[in-house]
Amino acid sequence: MSYEPPSSSDDDTRSTATHPPCVLAFNAGDPSGAGGLTADVATVAAMGGHPAAVVTGAYVRDTERIYDHFSLDDEAVHEQARTALEDLPVQAIKVGFVGSVENLSAIAELAADYAELPVVSYMPHLSWWQEPHIDQYLDAFRELLLPQTSVLVGNHSTLWRWLLPDWSGERSPTARDIAAAAADMGVPYTLVTGIPLPAHHVENVLASPETVHCHVRCELFDATFTGAGDTLSAALAALLACGTDLTTACTEALAFLDRCLEAGFRPGMGHAIPDRMFWAEPEDSETPSPEADKDDAPTLEGYGFPCHDTKH
Q: In the beta sheet, which residues pair with residue 154?
């Protein structure tokens, strides 16, 4: 895709816009709230954007694992997106897991019709899925969507095995090696995450075949998180929609993710999830004892609600 990030001399969109920047997000519904479209909506909103959410299907999952996935048909996906695009001033597109070859084709067609919009495509780990579905999906993503993609986002291991399956070097491929493979399919920039480093650290690198544009090293958290990739890619799309230049947007998106993980929580019996609304927490977050506030606890009567007296 021919998208070029705005230069620093461009007008500051954030200061002149009269409404939050709109981000069109394609993803699957996630009932656990860990990732998928739920993560996209929360992240875009947390970044100050307006999420236009297109449902491509639904996961059957909890915070620990994905059990199944059901796709919507491509016509339903296309009509959702087309209606939103014709009404809203969309300024960026984010593509997550969309569940089928047909949906990838529909999204690629829409992206080609709106070629002026940056497209951030995220490739998650698909080991939970059946092998034939994985192969078909990855092949279609490569052929249909990568040519429309401005920035590809994915974990080092996932992108390596997908884009460089025949890699035989003694060392692991670098971010530039992976970016070069993506560029062969038309992707100008690739954000490679989770590159292993010594001493419990990883590196996240924005690269093109020619150079590394930015890199951020961070220490691994002890917890296992679900939803980090969707959070990062949605944050990047929101920042690009604001008019932020690509290098700055990547740095800020990675910093946002780090804060989300630092404030992460474990709502169920599985993995921790990022707290995308960490900034809304009060600074003095001392938790009062239940006994101390017992008398001050709000009641339904205090809000004017009638008592529930339905009998079964």
A: 123, 192
